[in-house]
Design a protein that fits this description.
about 40% helix, 20 strands, Rossmann fold, 24 helices, single chain, globular, alpha/beta, Nitrilase/N-carbamoyl-D-aminoacid amidohydrolase, four-stranded parallel sheet
């Protein structure tokens, strides 16, 4: 009867400018889709060149190589007898567009340019592309000679159109268009489009996945239809982790769900669906049918091909599934672990080195690496040949098979406790015990000789010897002596990363991992060019609160009992002298604020777009039960003063896994000055005036200007 259609969508671990690897993964996904009976295959956004090409999109080479890959796809036997929908940049009339190229049997059916470009947060599409602004309009696109020689076509349709096959009608959306208030699927659905496709380049953020799923399901809940979403996965060369979650939805219900985190480079979802389910669902929605009768029609590209078979009565169709969301702790365990694995194998290094202090942040980083080792062993156990080949290259063994995460961890992960005279035995023991439980190759060293040598040089040159404040030194001396220790740790980390494997008779070097959390970066509670300066940082976009919850998750799921004492200890930098052998310095006292407060400040500053005055106004209500207006003002002023003084540190922030929407990452996400007037005189005066008004209304004696 021609009512059961079989369609495929996928999640691919593409890599920016890796045209050969990208081509191989695309072809593999098409092969899998065809082997499962699919007649239509959808891929991620800009999958041919990789989404994260950034300013390489300006280069003519990127366009040339994309068309070269397209020619290979058109010629490939794998792409015959299946409609293939691939993503690439296209130059039309000297304007660059982010496009879908849809083809069948060596003929291009349609080039569909993106209409709504993503240009917020981490996205800068308007920098490289222009949105197609001609609704329901199609032009002729003159194909380059390399494509003409394969297809025999001189021109093809380019623009906002839909495909009409022998049995149904398909319309394309591209990523951001699903999130736009006037999504194309609304009008397309009213015009009779039954299958919607969305090719995405959507990255992971903690607690975001449900939003994407809800948007896809709601797209067809009100209007009926089949919705396919493809997404990129993995680290394609920068701070983002694209988290897959390919899915297929029918009439508001999910019928196929892909994984959010996995080490599989190619994941294909195939579903067989009944078109009559869409038609009967739409039939009883009278408001939809009234609107459909007045809609402006889309140009239709006729395709002499069917997604169904004529004899399909006995073909089983897919039924709804319950979407399973990961908890935030699971997301932290899996997302950064997969990102680290991609970075390790693609950088062709031999492992990681982490300065392990025995505190929550570095311990959480160690647990993420341990989780990565779990994922690798599981992938190999499940038959992932790509992961096994990468493992063997990394450990320099052609016969090695990773079976035990602890044993594999010892091969690829080195931890180092860098003690000074200010370090406590407790943190040393915690670091050692955690290293034993995860299996890392652990080093204990004392760096006092290096610290004394550096300070000694200063004393010889100046004739002055700085002292800690507990010994009568000034705050400047105290801070300088702390910074010397912190910076020497960075130098030692890189030295050991370069030569540790050499001392063990093994080839290669190690990537240095940083472990500053998002809250510390926001406040600037770190030494510039200390251990926060590393090659990459898997927790740099994660809050202290979430990291504590993650540590508890690791205690329960990985049986890492060493984490219990780490959880109960107050966070400390251990850079000031001990008092009677005990730590006297704590992070929250040093910062003048709690980590819980820092998370609130961060979300208000970035997500709520609040400056000092707006933040004060919001916190007046949020903290009215615990703080007076004057106390709120004091806290807000202190935060913004410290933020402004330390913002320059963000210019050298180690590339971090992006996980929070209030990240202070200066590279792309949070674009701000790094030289501020730290007095905030106008803004703080507005706060003072408001405090005085409130105190007058409440009959409180006005105080001095708020500190």
């Amino acid at each position: 009867m021609g009512r059961a259609v079989t369609v495929a969508t996928c999640a691919l671990n593409q890599w920016a400018l890796d045209f050969e690897g990208n081509l191989e993964r695309i072809v593999r996904s098409i092969d899998i889709a065809k082997s499962k009976g699919a007649r239509y295959r959808l891929g991620p956004e800009l999958e041919i060149c990789g989404y994260g090409c950034s300013d390489h999109y300006y280069e003519s080479d990127t366009l040339l190589h994309s068309f070269q890959v397209l020619a290979k796809l058109l010629e490939s036997p794998a792409t015959q007898d299946v409609i293939c929908d691939v993503g690439m940049p296209v130059l039309h009339k000297n304007v660059r567009y982010n496009c879908r190229v849809i083809f069948l049997n060596k003929k291009i059916l349609l080039i569909r340019p993106k209409i709504s470009l993503a240009n917020a947060g981490n996205y800068r599409e308007l920098r490289w592309f222009t949105p197609w602004s001609k609704a329901r309009h199609v032009e002729e696109y003159f194909l380059p000679r390399i494509i003409q020689e394969v297809t025999g076509q001189e021109t093809v349709p380019f623009g906002d159109a839909v495909l009409a096959t022998k049995d149904t009608c398909l319309g394309a959306e591209i990523c951001e268009e699903l999130w736009a208030p006037n999504s194309p699927h609304i009008e397309m659905g009213l015009d009779g489009v039954e299958i919607f496709t969305n090719s995405s380049g959507s990255h992971h953020v903690l607690r975001k996945a449900h939003t994407r799923v809800d948007l896809v399901n709601s797209a067809t809940a009100k209007n009926g239809g089949i919705y396919l979403l493809a997404n990129q996965k993995g680290c394609d060369g920068d701070r983002l982790y694209y988290d897959g979650c390919a899915m297929i939805s029918v009439n508001g219900e999910t019928v196929a769900q892909g994984s959010q985190f996995s080490l599989d480079d190619v994941e294909v979802l195939v579903a067989t669906l009944d078109l009559e389910d869409v038609r009967s669902y739409r039939a009883e929605i009278s408001s939809r049918n009234l609107a459909a009768s007045k809609v402006n029609p889309y140009p239709r590209v006729k395709v002499n091909f069917a997604l169904s078979c004529s004899d399909d009565v006995a073909v089983p169709t897919c039924t709804p599934v319950q979407w399973r969301h990961h908890s935030p702790e699971e997301e932290i365990s899996l997302g950064p672990a997969c990102w680290l694995w991609d970075y390790l194998r693609r950088s062709k290094q031999a492992g990681f080195l982490l300065p392990l202090s025995g505190g929550i942040d570095s311990s959480a980083t160690a647990c993420i690496v341990y989780s990565m080792c779990h994922q690798v062993c599981l992938a190999v156990k499940n038959g992932n040949g790509d992961v096994l080949a990468d493992v063997r290259r990394i450990v320099n063994s052609e016969t090695y098979v990773p079976e035990d995460p602890r044993e594999f961890c010892k091969r690829v992960f080195t931890t180092c406790y860098m003690a000074s005279e200010n370090s406590s035995q407790e943190t040393c023991n915690r670091a050692k015990l955690l290293a034993e439980q995860i299996g890392s190759y652990h080093i204990n060293l004392n760096m006092d000789a290096a610290v004394k040598a550096v300070v000694g040089i200063f004393s010889v040159v100046t004739g002055r010897t700085p002292r800690f404040s507990v010994f009568g030194g000034s705050s400047r001396e105290n801070l300088a002596l702390q910074n010397v220790q912190a910076r020497i740790r960075m130098v030692l980390a890189y030295l050991f990363a370069q030569l540790t494997l050499w001392t063990r008779g093994q080839p290669g070097g190690l990537l240095v991992l940083g472990s500053a959390n998002v809250d510390e970066s926001l406040r600037g509670y770190l030494t510039k060019y200390d251990c926060s300066s590393a090659d990459i940082n898997p927790i740099g976009g994660i809050s202290k609160t979430d990291l504590k919850n993650f540590i508890q998750y690791c205690i329960e799921n990985f049986q890492l009992t060493a984490l219990r004492s780490i959880m109960s200890a107050p966070p400390t930098a251990e850079l000031e002298p001990l008092v009677y052998g005990q730590v006297a310095q704590t992070d929250e006292v040093d910062m003048g604020m709690t980590y819980a407060e820092l998370s609130v400040y961060g979300k208000l500053r970035k997500i709520a777009k609040a400056g000092p005055y707006s933040m004060f106004c919001k916190l007046l209500h949020m903290w009215k039960e615990i703080c007076s207006p004057r106390e709120v003002a004091s806290k807000v002023k202190h935060f913004f003063r410290m933020y402004a003084i330390n913002r320059h540190k963000m210019t050298t922030l180690t590339p971090s896994y992006h996980a929070e929407n209030y990240s202070p990452d200066d590279n792309r996400f949070d674009l701000r000055p790094f030289l501020y007037n730290t007095a905030w005189s106008w803004q703080f005066r507005c706060i003072d005036q408001q405090v005085s008004k409130l105190e007058k209304q409440e009959g409180v004696s006005p105080g001095e200007d708020v500190d």
